[in-house]
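Q: How do we represent a protein-ligand complex in a form that can be generated token by token?
A: Start from the inputs.
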Amino acid sequence: MTTEEIKNSIRNIPDFPKEGIQFKDVSTAFKDKHIFRHILSEIATHYENLGITKVVGIESRGFILGSSLAGKLHAGFIPIRKPGKLPADTYVQSYDLEYGSDSLEIHTDALDREDVVLIHDDLLATGGTVNAAVELVRRFGVTKIYVNFFVELEFLEGRDRISSEVPVWSLIHFQ
Ligand code: AMP
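Then emit the structure tokens for the protein with adenosine monophosphate bound:
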């Protein structure tokens, strides 16, 4: 399977959820059993020899590949969720949106400083969401952090907002 085939399986929805946004609908890639398996295998192969102990998935589309990746990498799975969803004690990190701000949470007992963490989300746009996730993981004293996306929108330069100490890798790129 070629990168182009995977790319073509992602549906573009203009002006969703608001005018001017080109929404990349990954559900059309995930519904194909061959493509889903291929994506998973490509990402897992990239991280297989790094000793990843926990995959941290960002709500909600980051849970889809994130949990399967954890299984493939023999790692645990940790959810980062929107406010008010996690039942036990949490660390909270706010981040700026185009208008206003939002926040993300993680359970305070989710990670240990010795963990080797792979943060996964479906898509990198401006980088605000993943930045907040990196800050949450750092609260535990974790030093080995990797970041992965299925899709990266390069023209939004989100990668430039992620700390240069954190290796970032995406399977599919839109210029
Ligand atoms: P950002 O914080 O700007 O990097 O936005 C990343 C988050 O918003 C990810 O969790 C994506 O699922 C979602 N997102 C942002 N822009 C898009 C887009 N154009 N298409 C699909 N999802 C998007």
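The chain has five helices and nine strands. The helical segments are 3-8, 27-30, 33-47, 62-72, 128-138.
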